[in-house]
Every structure is written in C-alpha cells, then in structure tokens.
C-alpha cells in the first residue's frame, strides 16, 4: 500500500519566510514565545468567523508578527503600511494580467 505524498507545510514562500523570521527573533532572545502565542491567538479570535479556519492560519501569523515587530520597534508603522500598499498594488496588477 502506498501512502499519499504529504502536503507542503507552507503553501507560499512568504509563509515560510515569516515563520522563520519569528522563530529566529525568538531564538535570538528578542521576545518570549508566549507573547507571540498571545498575539496569534488574539489575531485568530479577532478574525471574521469565516476566516478563523486553517486556510487563514498564516495570514493570522503575519498579523501577529506585524504587531510583534511594531512592539519591538523593529518595523516603523508608516513603512509597514507603505509596503502593504505596494504589495496590494502588485497583487492587483498580477490578477489583471491573468484575467
């Protein structure tokens, strides 16, 4: 009997990158893991009902990471918003080219 191949842990490269960043910051002693767990739990709890399922897990992880990076003053809030806007524009342009 053959076993089906395992699904990748990360669906997209950004998911692996944000995961690795947060783990590296914790290992370097920038914060205690329970703080990130609390932020992640809060992000999931604050999500709309339909977005609390596993498919949205790394979106919540990203939100918690952004909050943590702000708390640690590793990311400027204005810079973060500028980058979000740029990424949204790139995503929209990409979708227009595929339609």
Question: Please, could you describe this protein's structure?
Answer:
- The chain has one domain.
- The chain is 67% helix and 0% strand.
- It is built from 4 helices and no strands.
- The chain is globular.
- The model has no long low-confidence stretch (mean pLDDT 86).
- Helix 1 crosses helix 3 and helix 2 crosses helix 3.
- With 99 residues, the protein is mainly α.
Secondary structure topology:
Layout: H1 13-27, H2 33-46, H3 57-71, H4 77-98
Helix pairs in contact: 1-3, 2-3
Report the major sheet.
Answer: none
Tell me, what's the shape?
globular
Distance between the termini: 42 Å
Helix content: 55-70%
DSSP summary: helix tally:
4
Residue windows where pLDDT falls under 50 for at least 5 positions: none
Nearest-angstrom radius of gyration? 16 Å
Structural class: mainly alpha
- Order of secondary-structure elements: HHHH
- Overall tally of structural domains: 1
What is the overall pLDDT average? 86
- Sheet-strand content, in percent, reads under 5%
Q: What is the number of strand segments?
A: 0
Brief overview:
This protein is mainly α and 99 residues long. It contains 4 helices and no strands.
Key features?
single chain, 99 residues, mainly alpha, globular
